[in-house]
Amino acid sequence: MKSLRLEDAVPQSGSRHRKLRVGRGHSAGQGKTSGRGMRGQKCRSGGGVRPGFEGGQIPLYMRLPKLKGFELVNPSSYTIVNLKQLRDLPADSEVNIETLLDAGILTATSGPLRVLGDGEAHVALQITAAYFTASAREKIEAAGGTCTVEA
After folding, report:
1. 76 burial class (0-12, 13-18, 19+ CB within 10 angstroms)?
2. pTM above 0.70, yes or no
3. Cα–Cα 20 to 30 A to 69, which of 23, 27, 113, 137?
4. What segments bear the compositional bias annotation Gly residues?
5. H-type alpha helices, 82-133
6. Same domain for 34 and 92?
């Protein structure tokens, strides 16, 4: 077998084309207008329109509304309850998502329970939740209740 040498390497047949010489007469195939047609902006040197140009009409990228903000990829959702919703519960009762669903205070859950401080804590409650606001914790403990943060 003959050894392969660099000077013997040639491109495959049909893979290389000669550069098309435009504007060099009729017989060359691309004479006179060089394949650009007759007159107009597109036939001129440097002619053409910018990307997105629609002939003077308001282009699509300007007709569409601008995006407002962005959407989170993995948004976190919580089940929210305010202290004013807990005013009808009996004193010293255990409060968590299950008991709130049973009592009819919540109709559905959408994540961990968060207790917010809107309203007053009238009775002592033992509340178990994932998060308490500072005002909610203060009002619950002032009424004699306890706040337990679940992991």
Report:
1. exposed
2. no
3. 113
4. 26-38
5. 97-103
6. no
